Amino acid sequence: MIAAATTTPLSRTRYGVLGAVSFAHVLNDMMQSVIVAIYPLLKGEFELSFFQIGAITLTFQLTASLLQPVVGMVTDRHPLPYTLPVGMCFTLAGLLLMSVAPSYPVLLLAVALIGCGSSAFHPESSRVARMASGGRYGLAQSVFQIGGNLGQALGPLMAAGVVLTLGRAHVGWFGLAALLGIVVLLQVSRWYSRHIEERVRKRLPSDQPLFPAPVVRRTLGVLMVLMFSKFFYLASISSYYEFYLIHHFGLSMTRATHLLAVFLMAVAAGTLIGGPLGDRIGRKQVIWVSILGIAPFTLLLPHVGLAWTVGLSVVIGVVLASAFPAIIVYAQDMMPHRVGMVSGMFYGLSFGLGGIGAAVLGVVADHYGIEFVYQVCAFLPLLGLLAVFLPDVRPPGHAGAVRKP
C-alpha cells in the first residue's frame, strides 16, 4: 500500500448549486454545439473543404483548451468567482459575431471568442461542483457533465429547427441563452464567493496532497493517453457523423442532424452513469470497461447498415462517455490541492484533442474518404489496455487507498 486517507464529506451535498452549474453547462455547451451542427450549412455557404471544417473545430478547441489550465492555475492561487459570468460574455460576443461573419477568417474569430468563454467556464464550474459535492465527487461531476452533454444534444436539434431552416443570421438568437447563463452564473458566483471565505477559515486537510509524486505523474500520464483514445474517437463522430450518414447512406441534412443528436443523448446518458458508478465500484474499473469495452462495437460500426449504425453509435456513446467523469475525479483525487489546474488541464485536453483530431481526420477524409476515417478510428479504443497501469483508488466512503496494480 502506497498511501491512505479517509475521505469525509466537507458538508451536505448542495444540490441547488450543482443544479445551477449543470443548467449553465446545458446553456454553454448547447451554444457551442451549434457550431458543429451547422457545419453542412457553413461548408456550402463558404465553399469549405473538409480540412477547413476541421480547422473551425481546431480553432474552437485550441482556444478552449490552451487557456483552461492557465485559468485553473490562476484561480487556485487567487480565487476569482466572477470569472464564470465574464466567460459567458465572451460566448455571447462570439455568437453575435458568427451570425454576421462576412468571411471565413471572421468566422474563425467568432469561434475563437466562444472558445475563450469555454476556457473560463469549465475549470471554475468543475471546481464549484466539487465544492458543492459534500464528498460525493463522482456524482457531482456526473451532474455537472450531464448538463454539457444535454446541451451538446440539444444544440443540433435547435440548430436544425432554427439555423438550418432560417439561415445563419439566426445564430444570434442563441445569444438569449448566453444572457440567461450570465444571470444564473452570477448567483453561482455569489455562493462561490461565500464558500471561499469559509474554506480558507477551515483549512481543510482534504485539500492537501495525498499521494507520492511518482504515483501522481504515472497516473496522470496514463489518463492522458486514455483521453487521447476517447476524444480522438469522439471527434470522428461529433465532427463527421453527419457527413458519414449523408455520404454513406444518402440521408438528408436534417435527418443526419437528428441522428447526431441521438448519439449525443447517448453520450449524456453515459456521463450520468459514470460518476456515481465510480463512487460505488472504483474509478479504475469504470475507466477500464468504458474505453476498452467499446472496441468490438467500434470495429463493427463501419461495416453495418443504417439501423445497426445508429444502434451501435448509441452503445458506443453510452459506454465511452461513462469514462470522463471517472477520469476527471481520478485526476482531482491525485492533486486535491490543485483542483483548478487539474480540471482545466483535463477539460482543456479534452477540447484540444478533439480539435486536433477533427483537423487530422479532416485531412484523412479529404484524401481517403469519410468511410476510411471510421475504419481507422475503430482501433483507438484498444489503447484502453493501458488502464492496467493505473493504481487502484478506492471510492469515497471507503478507507481511501492507492495500491500498486
From TrEMBL:
Coiled coil regions, renumbered to chain: none
UniProt-listed InterPro entries: MFS, MFS_dom, MFS_trans_sf
Keyword terms of this UniProt record: Membrane, Transmembrane, Transmembrane helix
Keyword Transmembrane found: yes
GO molecular function terms attached to this record: transmembrane transporter activity
Single GO cellular component term: plasma membrane
Residue span(s) of domain Major facilitator superfamily (MFS) profile: 17-396
Keyword Transmembrane: yes
Regions that span the bilayer: 17-42, 48-67, 172-193, 220-241, 256-274, 286-304, 310-332, 344-366, 372-390
One of the Pfam families matching this protein, by short name: MFS_1
Name of protein: MFS transporter
Organism: Rhodanobacter lindaniclasticus
